């Protein structure tokens, strides 16, 4: 019985549950726009019957996603806080930098935590640091997906930083 | 062992009677003056059922009705606004409710939650709030609602001729 409890606790601590609490403080803040798509949503979406090939691919990917969280702010102080929290999180979770792009005054960094295979990703974190009036974006996506599939998703969901992510998908092969 | 059983049963009984439910909230709010409440049935869609495919008809049938309750915020009722808003938020945090997605920034935002299982969704709840205007909770109930039916319903909505008059009471809220 005790062993079972220990296993459950360990599982809870070491997986996405941790991801959710690290960024919780950014919820409910007037200066931060927070978008959250929970695992249940992806599960339900995954249950829709696909009518054509594109839909099949999309639904196939959706089934592999767990949680998505996006935080956007134009506030300097909060941007700083988001960066600090992101850095701490990356270290604590052993995530590696996949790529970085500097474009039009925005610095985009993408980090991943690989799964079993090199192209399998368990977690992706993207941090876009805008300078001046540009927005800072922190995005966390967990699941068990392939980088290539990711661009299909970002296209559909119109996420900030979608272009950068499609480049990431094509880059790591 | 018996003690544990009694304890658990006791807990369940207590939680059942004390926990506020959305249903109760809807009923109570309908009586309060700052609220607008209305019930909408599928007749609002003005659909010619003969024009629907079997799949669409099945989807339509899985939906029962839609209850809407909205709190109209004014400079005078801000305190009340916060109180009622917290009530809804607390209810939605309850165990039965599973949040699907949310979007927002503190005082403005929206969320979608549901009760039920993947293949048999009992209720969908849409909640939206905007500091200056107030908040609204839309509760869609049905039987055997499932993701496929939801998608099909979207195509049904395209065919519909929504009877906007039925929604007139909400106009005051949306200015």
Low-confidence stretches of chain A: none
Helix- and strand-based class of chain A? alpha+beta
Query: How is the main sheet of chain B built?
Result: 6 strands, antiparallel
The N- to C-terminal Cα distance of chain A equals 44 Å
As a percent range, the share of helical residues of chain B equals 40-55%
Structural class of chain B: alpha+beta
Query: Helix count of chain B?
Result: 6
Distance between the termini of chain B: 60 Å
Mean residue pLDDT of chain B = 82
- Give the oligomeric state: heterodimer
Return the string of H and E elements of chain A: HHEHHEHEEEEHH
Overall outline of chain A: globular
Q: Provide the helix percentage of chain A.
A: 40-55%
DSSP summary: helix tally of chain A: 7
Roughly what fraction of the amino acids of chain B lie in strands?
25-35%
Spatial order of strands in the largest sheet of chain B? 1-2-6-5-4-3
Shape of chain B: globular
List segments of chain B where confidence is low: pLDDT < 50 over at least 5 consecutive residues: none
In spatial order, strands of the major sheet of chain A run 1-2-6-5-4-3
Protein chains sharing the most extensive interface: A-B, 19 and 20 residues
Gyration radius over CA of chain A? 17 Å
